[in-house]
Sequence to fold (344 residues):
Amino acid sequence: MSEFPVKERRYAMEDTYFSEYACKSLQTRGRQRAEQPCAMRTEFQRDRDRIIYSKAFLRLKNKTQVFFSPEGDHFRTRMTHTIDVSQIARSIARSLSLNEDLAEAISLGHDLGHTPFGHAGERVLNALSPKGFAHNEQSLRVVDVLEKDGKGLNLTYEVRDGIVQHKKSGNPCTLEGKAVSLADRIAYVNHDIEDAIRAGLLRAEELPKEEIRILGSTSRDRINAMITSIYRTSVGKNQVLMGESEAQALESLRAFMFERVYITPVSMKEEERAKRMLTGMYEYFMKDANKLPAFYRKLTEEYPLEQVVCDYLSSMTDKFAVAVFNSIFVPHSWALTEKDIEEI
Fold:
């Protein structure tokens, strides 16, 4: 037995208590590059730690979830959304006797490649780049290529798969990945409702009555109802699915949010501002790659310039994107110095 039996106890616990459909830590397909195993942590626990201590994860605290630069202290950011997803995914995994460590690692990494200005920024880069842009694919690129000065985090196959497949259209190879995909939708719909009410864009009584009857009148009740539905539908089975009525109610709430919050004259006005900023910077760096920071200039030796420019722009926080835009297009007495830009 190892000098540190912590990991062996974890393996024994997984063998004893996990569902036959869970992805056990010893079953990982491994990493792209072989590494010496950790004496105390499983491979999925190592992945979780690597993501938490990555630069991309730290930047999430200053990236938009829905509302651009909100003045209140209690609006969600991309960081708090990620924590919400992790909590819900772990609850689902625990209820179904799946691997919580794997679900947590996927959750914490699923939005690492998200743009500044939320999905508005994603739509802009998708339109600008000849190769298109999708935040889930960029999240995989972050962990594979961009982190650790171009070395990547060298995560396990299952975590990488869960990250790139987390969108509704994806098909994760593990039930833990499927739990994260559902948790993502549960989190953003419910918590975006709370933020929209807090911002005065919605009143609670305006929410669709039938959907609220099925799921509950508060975010806590709705999340609990959906996790409970997933448990009842999936326990003891090789699936992670929500019951039909709850799933339909969630999709109806999502459609309601697109109509009333996500795609509205107010939000589109803000998106137009983000579009002008990101378009201006994209064109600026496409014309002269030497204006990119040194790390990204180095990347152009291996990857197409349009990919690298998207790497740089998508890595930015909202505030940093504004600062770089100002450094390029606003008189220099207000701009960041070149040293400031290189250090970020």
User: Anything to note?
Assistant: The chain is about 60% helix and 0% strand. The mean pLDDT is 92.
